[in-house]
Amino acid sequence: MSTVAYTPADEIPKIHTRARQAYRSGKAKSVEFRKQQIAQVGYMLKDNEERFVQAAKQDLGRPEIETVLIDLSAVYIDVKLFYDNVEKWTKSRRVGFNLNFAPMSPRVKAEPKGVVLLIGPYNAPVFLLMSPLVGAIAGGNAVVLKPSEHSPATAALITELVPKYLDPDLVHVINGGVPETAAILELPWDHRSTRVGRIVAQAAGKHLTPLTLEACVCPEYVLVPRDFQDTFVAAVHEVYKSFYPDGPKNSDSLSRMVSEAHAARIKKLLDETKGTILFGGDVDILERYVGPTLVKDVKPDDALMSEEIFGPVLLVVPVNDLDEALEIIRSRDKPLAVYTFSPDSTFLAKVFDNTESGAVLANEVFIHLGVPGLPAGGVGASGYGYYTGKEMFDQFTHLRVSLNNPSWYVIVLEPQVVPLRALMSESPLVRVDKIGFRFRFPPYKKENLKQLRALSPALPPRPKGKSGPAQNGQRWATWLAFILAGAVSFMLTGYGRDFVKGYPT
């Protein structure tokens, strides 16, 4: 196994401080700078693709094609998407039109959250760290990366390459195990993304830190009709033999567990199962090997159903009908994904409409993670927030609202707080203070309340069969007065006078 040098505990707060100072410098505000850094993430991976393949082979025994497909290609998709769209996504936008507030030009703009902490998992150590990094950079944040200590070769490579390709003030790497991670979690962050959900959520609560948390999308159990179970497992066995004709242990197409401890955990679960192991089940802890395993006749309360497996074990749970299958799904934590297989559109619709999950796919598994534009995220215990796509940009920004009330509109809304004598002296026949609307400041009068109610938006049509007082023309009269007051105030301010002077006669 490779090793990676852990970051000294006393250096961690200093790194956090440097990242905070770099963020406050405003360097990451520039959209051009963000685009340059996003492109650099892509080239960091592309230029060193073979090294990342070899690192994954050391960490996980992962075949080259799986690393390129799972870890690298998915990041390239996000790099292209964010590079092409970050300029559009960072522009301020108008909100829906409302006559009461339209003169104030209310707008919303995506602003960075600040200093972001990204804690990567070991099962996709590049994709699940670099893809959120792209989103965080696009959002204009400073970033601290914490690669998984269980994938040390990949962590060491990331630690080496990040300062060579990315701004060393704004993107930092911290390595370590439990003590270092605990030290990281004691610091205030503006956003975190991690797999160690409950631990991090508890630590984040101290600083009111927003989180993005996700579980995993790998199929773990299959719900099949009871009378179809034997047919199903026989078909799976045939596919298994075609995948590994010479046996899986010597195959170069099968990854290993990330550590001996993880292999031992799978062995313990297999030892405790009440189901029937049809093939596989062999575990070599020293080699971190778990053979692809199929277990049938598994009940919902089986040991193998008690937690995420994170290994090459598939469980077959027989059910009497679709309703029982749906009830089993609904009785458990909401999953990151539900996969259903059938040519029957009615069957598929029933599964789609009666389950809750981060994603639901028909006749496919986890391919949605590679579809540009589709966000990936969980619900409930399977996670919250999103990664990939525009939604990941939203995770790493907050919506800052802005409003600019012009002086002529202030006169309309609150004439008593505006010195009108000079304006009125130029137009002595117009009493703006009588036309204006008083809403917020004393002295309060019933007349003001009537005006406020009249300017409120109309309700939708009353439901049939429900009676109420008839509407009258008061609303329209108030709106006409409101528009007249706005026109008069506009003309009495510099805006209106300049407009009239410049109008050709």
TrEMBL record:
Keywords: Membrane, Oxidoreductase, Transmembrane, Transmembrane helix. It comes from the Eukaryota. The chain crosses the membrane at residues 476-495. Belongs to the aldehyde dehydrogenase family. One of its GO terms (cellular component) is cytoplasm. This is Aldehyde dehydrogenase domain-containing protein. Residues 3-214, 215-400 form the Aldehyde dehydrogenase domain. GO terms for molecular function: aldehyde dehydrogenase (NAD+) activity. It holds the Pfam family Aldedh. The keyword Chaperone does not apply. PANTHER family: ALDEHYDE DEHYDROGENASE, ALDEHYDE DEHYDROGENASE TYPE III, ISOFORM Q.
